[in-house]
Batch of 2 targets.
Target 1
Amino acid sequence: MAHPDDAELWAGGTLTLHAQAGATVTTALPRTNERRNQEAAAGAAALGGQLRLLDELTLSTVRDLLTELRPEVVITHNPDDIHPDHQQTAQTLLAALPEVVITTGYPRRVYTCDGYHNLQRDGRPLHLPVIVDVTGVWDTKMRALTQHASQPIAEHFAPMAETPGRLHGGRIGVRYAEAFAPLPVLGQLPATLHL
């Protein structure tokens, strides 16, 4: 992810569900100032995961991280997200994928997450056909988000989480959900029963 609160905001419920199911959940993002790094570690821990900070977001650092961790699943931003940092993060990850997948066989699945107001750069809604019910872990997601005390959580980020959470939840008949889009990995979209 691009920023310390992005994992919690866009995929916190889904990451919590995976952690509760026994998966190792790692949030990776570029290092920032010490306070934000500490908040990111606390947010990752609240979701049941761990944090990995990259000294810089480059093709090499992302490739090395993926090669080391060999994740089954990766969640990133949409390359057409309206935020330029999100775009850069997604594009760097996508550029690293071919070599890593050919070398290691991982990740097996890659998904993009929601973004600001569910919009991409051209103003169209993001296409997010994979919807995960996070109603049962919504409080955990929000608790993780509040770990980012240096940010305007109550005024800005909590409502930003609430609105798409209810929107995606309504699409599948539950209170809260998070939505994702699968990306091809070396031209394949593998079948799966979960993210």
Note: Helices lie at 6-20, 34-46, 59-69, 84-104, 138-145, 153-172.
Target 2
Amino acid sequence: MFKRIAIMVIVLLWSGLAFAAHPLITDDTGTQGKGRFQFELNGGYSNDNGNKETEVNTILSAGLRDNIDLVITAPYLFQNIEDGSSEDGISDIGIEMKWRFYEKDGLSFALKPGIILPTGNENKGLGDGKTSYSLFFIATKEIEPLTIDLNLGYIKNRKDLRDIWHYSLAGEYRVTKPLRIVANIGGETNPDKESDINPAFLLGGIIYSVNENFDVDCGIKAGLPKQRLITQSLQV
């Protein structure tokens, strides 16, 4: 796996309904609703000892039913290697389905299985060359003006590395109708079998709803001390 330190992420979000909005990493149980769509465009930049990568994700969510979404993510990578070479092209496409199976008194549960297709060129470092899959359990509790989200997930590694177990918790506080303050903490197992240091993060930010179809957000993400590194990201 490409070990990297993310130093900047710029996000543009256009959505009919903004549920698990940036800058949060943790998803919530919200769905688009039958016949509704969400289009999302986000990008990220990372630098690992001179190996630079820019990733642009195009994400489309479609409401199949009121409680079921189909989500397709198509990433495009630009890579600049320390030796001066560069590559760019489409990476591995992800397909997920979110199913909210329980909802009562502000508490809801959902499952989100997914598959990652080997559409990127493995020889150019744009993909992993193998099909992978994941499964996430999502819980959301709404206590106005506070919303709490929990994610527990499993990701099958596509290479000869350790499979990944993910956990994260997010909180969202609505200050005013358009303004929300958010915080996020979480981590996952390290895919490197030779390392006993598991990546973890802490994130804080704000989300401002210009109107019901357009959100602007920004946040700062940092690696926790046990990682012995500093990870910062800016999202707008």
Note: The longest strand covers residues 51-65.
